[in-house]
Amino acid sequence: MFALTRLRDWTVLDTARRLRPGADLAGTARELGEALESREQVVVTARLDGASVDLARRILGARLRTVGDRQDGDGRVEITVAYGALDGVRQLLQFSDHIEVVAPEPSPSADPPARGPHRSHSPAPDRRHLPLELPVHLSLERPEGRTR
User: Fold this and answer.
1) SS3 assignment, position 91
2) CA 84/CA 69 separation, integer angstroms
3) How many other C-beta atoms lie within 10 A of the C-beta of residue 128?
4) Is the pTM of this model over 0.70?
5) 143 or 99: whose pLDDT is higher?
6) Rounded to the nearest 5 degrees, what angle is found at the Cα of 65, between the Cα atoms of 60 and 66?
7) Residue 148 to residue 141: CA distance in whole angstroms
């Protein structure tokens, strides 16, 4: 998907478009919409201090899927949070001692967490799901002051 506000220029090429067998516009639009709206690859269940629920609603926003309606013996409620990528769960670190992640459980073979600054990069997108290749060359402009 492209941010059309950043589209500066386009050129139609002589190459004909190629459709994936069985693909049509309606089906492709539905697939792309579902992929954008359901980016919940990582779902975390946690116990959160009852006094922190309002803060969690403000911080987590739409990622906060469920909040339990009753507190357990130590004043915590169960919450479910969904993220599009594993890196997103770092957002929960700001709750420090007020949250306990109960699922998913860490893998026994998981590497210990890295120390120091860490920057992850998303893998190259899988282009096999794209239904067509348009004969268009796009030029995008960067917002001022932004570099790679």
Assistant:
1) helix
2) 26
3) 6
4) no
5) 99
6) 110
7) 12
